[in-house]
């Protein structure tokens, strides 16, 4: 996959302020406020910044956390993981591997078959619905 690289100014011009804050400045939305936190619509969730397919709605589940949660990405290669030691704790941050957009975090307390919970900000996603 070819990496997409843009300046902060380019991203700022392309994204609304909230999406920019979350995806480019590693922010988060408040729990239970994102447009996809309780969505059951079939389809594929894409990166809002670059359009890369990230998660199939078939892998989405209600974790009770208030954010869209998935147990696996569409392909391992579309996700990058980095250690996040902000807020006085160690977590694993999830980024889009193509454009480095901050998506959320992954935790080892999800359902089988992976045991993972990708806890993702709605503002970093764009759902392409299945017809």
Automatic annotation (TrEMBL):
Binds 1 zinc ion per subunit. The zinc ion is important for the structural integrity of the protein. GO terms for molecular function: peptide-methionine (R)-S-oxide reductase activity; zinc ion binding. Its cofactor is Zn(2+). Its EC number is 1.8.4.12. The lineage of its organism: Bacteria, Pseudomonadati, Pseudomonadota, Gammaproteobacteria, Oceanospirillales. Residues 8-130 form the MsrB domain. Keywords: Metal-binding, Oxidoreductase, Zinc. One of its GO terms (biological process) is response to oxidative stress. NCBIfam families: peptide-methionine (R)-S-oxide reductase MsrB. It holds the Pfam family SelR. It comes from Isoalcanivorax pacificus W11-5. GO terms for cellular component: cytoplasm. The keyword Iron does not apply. This is Peptide methionine sulfoxide reductase MsrB. Zn(2+) binds at residues 47, 50, 96, 99. The keyword Transmembrane helix does not apply. Belongs to the MsrB Met sulfoxide reductase family. It catalyses: L-methionyl-[protein] + [thioredoxin]-disulfide + H2O = L-methionyl-(R)-S-oxide-[protein] + [thioredoxin]-dithiol.
């Amino acid at each position: 996959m070819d990496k997409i690289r843009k300046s902060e100014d380019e991203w700022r011009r392309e994204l609304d302020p909230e999406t920019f804050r979350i995806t480019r400045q590693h922010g988060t939305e408040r729990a239970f406020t994102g447009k996809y936190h309780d969505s059951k619509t079939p389809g594929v969730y894409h990166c809002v910044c670059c359009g890369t397919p990230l998660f199939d709605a078939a892998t989405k589940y209600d974790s009770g956390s208030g954010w869209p949660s998935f147990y696996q990405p569409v392909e391992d290669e579309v996700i990058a993981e980095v250690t996040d030691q902000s807020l006085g704790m160690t977590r694993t941050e999830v980024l889009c591997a193509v454009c480095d957009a901050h998506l959320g975090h992954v935790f080892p307390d999800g359902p089988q078959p992976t045991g993972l919970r990708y806890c993702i900000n709605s503002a970093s996603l764009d759902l392409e619905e299945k017809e």
